[in-house]
Amino acid sequence: MGIVVLTMKASVIEMFLVLLVTGIHSNQEMKKMKRPKFTVPQISCDVRAGKITNVEFIVKCPPGCQDPRYHVYGTDVYASYSSVCGAAVHSGVLDNSGGKILVRKVAGQSGYKGSYSNGVWSLSLPRWRESFVVSEGKPQKGVTYPSSLTYSSSKSPAAKAGETAKADQSPSVPGTAAQPVSVTQVPGTTAIEATHTTLPKPFPSAGSTTSSLQPQPVGQRSKDLDLWSTTTYINSQNSPQANPGFVPKEELSTQSLEPASQGDPSCKVDLSFLIDGSSSIGKRRFQIQKQFLTDVAQTLDVGPAGPLMGVVQYGDNPATQFNLKTHMNSQDVKAAIEKISQRGGLSNAGRAISFVTKNFFSKFNGNRGGAPNVAVVMVDGWPTDKVEEASRFARESGINIFFITIEGASENEKQYVLEPNFANKAVCRTNGFYSLTVQNWFSLHKTVQPLVKRVCDTDRLACSKTCLNSADIGFVIDGSSSVGTSNFRTVLQFVANISREFEISDTDTRIGAIQYTYEQRLEFGFDEYSTKSDVLNAIKRVGYWSGGTSTGAAINYALELLFKKSKPNKRKLMILITDGRSYDDIRIPAMLAHHKGVITYAIGVAWAAQDELDVIATHPARDHAFFVDEFDNLYKVVPKVIQNICTEFNSQPRN
């Protein structure tokens, strides 16, 4: 019997060892098996974070999500109503070519600030129920990411039933305020209804009461799960009579989430206020100045499609309080103005103007390029430094300077003014349009409407025009046989180098060109190309003609075919390049060009006659006629021509 038992025990041990070895081999085989590869889900640019119920996920965005059609709300932390991929571009995690990103849901914010970043305008939003942040699409260790996303519009019946039961479990006690509810997210659902993409209802009044409460049906926003409210919404409030702030469900379904105004499009300007924070102004008058700014912001209707506004405060030194891209509506601007505290010190307005010219109106700070730049300088009494030189540089940079002088120097005080007539030396034009004088601080509020009307009159903002963005430039190119094919390509490079210096568009500088020998040929007109790249490509395509040299006939041809179609508000510039003496008379055509207001630059090469260049060129010839002995030296003339064009433009009278 004992032998049988031992045999059985040995058999059991043997079987156990066999199973153990088998299990180890099986486990090793399992480890050798290749793990399934993680597939990154792809989404389109218009997918909003709130539509995706997953809390943390990696997705791949397509190219083109920088498009303004895909709305983004917030900066760094984004409202879940935002385009996921649009937010990724705005944050700088992606560029417009797309790619992988990691998205993580976070709590709703009490407010979201709009800004301009990486080619995307994000909008401001007072508050939203859920937020998200984006980062590089690198998986975190120990985290499993879904290969497919769950969308709120595709919830299973079981998930919906679970939500209904959850909503029914803890109704609020009648007659008492509801306690804040802690909501736990479960797979396939969101803590709050992600399908609901309309604005929240206003808060109920503090005195509202009820005798009965009913759970809300699934598919509508659950009133006792509303993370914005700390009190219970009640049935008696669900009527306009009981609660004047109540928004009916029918209206909520069509109400737009976007801010009420995108700004006044008839006043699209980039506006900087330079406010006086010097010690002499005092706290009371500084507060009046802030109230003035607040009134201006309200009147302007700030927004991305209209005016944008920033503030620089100056004392001894200037400092930006907020720039053009910081706030996208009047309410946010007003709130920011209220937070400004006085700097103290002197009243160095000239230093502030230099600061604004060099730093404020940059793309990084929200300058839009197509909108006029306006700087409104406010000064108490008079500046403690000189403004003339700084203002001249600002004007040449395309900034329209307005000056508001409050409580200017009396007759007895004028001896203390460092720079007499400082306002006229600073403003864009001395015709009175850009200067406002206020007798005392308590009358400053009367200036709001006149100032807003003037800064919004973009047709009269004369300093928006610079030497580089306000001309029609016609090139008259000698294609005669003496030039030769190789040198002709050098001439075209000269034409391209000059064109490259200008701001080219259908509303800025326009470029045209003709080529001449005995005959003339229009290569392209002013209205043919409206971008710099198109103009440069058109210049490359010009073919060498070869023939004689009839410069007089070419000037007449340019006046008729090019400059006759020039816009009235454009400076007319003719740049003629020739390598020899003309076969015909150039005097009468040149005089006709001068009479028609065409500013002519004559560029001679090699065998060109200096006496003819002086006749063709606008007076004085020393500023408009240039000669080089070889075609390869043409490049040296480019900076001289550009400099003279701008010097002549900037020396125009400012009245």
Q: Secondary-structure blueprint of this entry?
A:
Blueprint: H1 2-32, E1 56-61, E2 74-75, E3 77-79, H2 84-91, E4 99-107, E5 116-117, E6 120-121, E7 130-136, H3 157-169, H4 249-252, E8 270-276, H5 282-300, E9 308-314, E10 318-322, H6 330-338, H7 349-360, E11 373-380, H8 388-396, E12 399-406, H9 422-426, E13 435-438, H10 448-455, E14 471-478, H11 485-500, E15 510-516, E16 520-524, H12 532-540, H13 551-561, E17 571-578, H14 587-595, E18 598-605, H15 610-616, H16 621-624, E19 625-628, H17 638-650
Parallel strand pairs: 8-9, 8-11, 11-12, 12-13, 14-15, 14-17, 17-18, 18-19
Antiparallel strand pairs: 1-4, 2-3, 3-7, 4-7, 5-6, 9-10, 15-16
Helix pairs in contact: 5-6, 5-10, 7-8, 11-12, 13-14
Function: Promotes matrix assembly and cell adhesiveness. Plays a role in spinal cord formation by regulating the proliferation and differentiation of neural stem cells.
Main location: secreted
Signal peptide: 1-26
Give a brief description.
The chain is an alpha/beta fold and 655 residues long.
What does this structure look like?
- This protein has 655 residues and is an alpha/beta fold.
- It is 29% helix and 17% strand.
- It has helices at 2-32, 84-91, 157-169, 249-252, 282-300, 330-338, 349-360, 388-396, 422-426, 448-455, 485-500, 532-540, 551-561, 587-595, 610-616, 621-624, 638-650, and strands at 56-61, 74-75, 77-79, 99-107, 116-117, 120-121, 130-136, 270-276, 308-314, 318-322, 373-380, 399-406, 435-438, 471-478, 510-516, 520-524, 571-578, 598-605, 625-628.
- A 6-stranded mixed β-sheet has the order 10-9-8-11-12-13, with helices on both faces. It has a 6-stranded mixed β-sheet with strand order 16-15-14-17-18-19, with helices on both faces. The protein has a 5-stranded antiparallel β-sheet with strand order 1-4-7-3-2, with helices on one face.
- Helix 8 (388-396) links the parallel strand 11 and strand 12.
- Helix 5 (282-300) crosses helix 10 and helix 13 packs parallel to helix 14.
- The protein is flat and about 105 Å long.
- Residues 167-183, 206-219 have a biased composition (Polar residues).
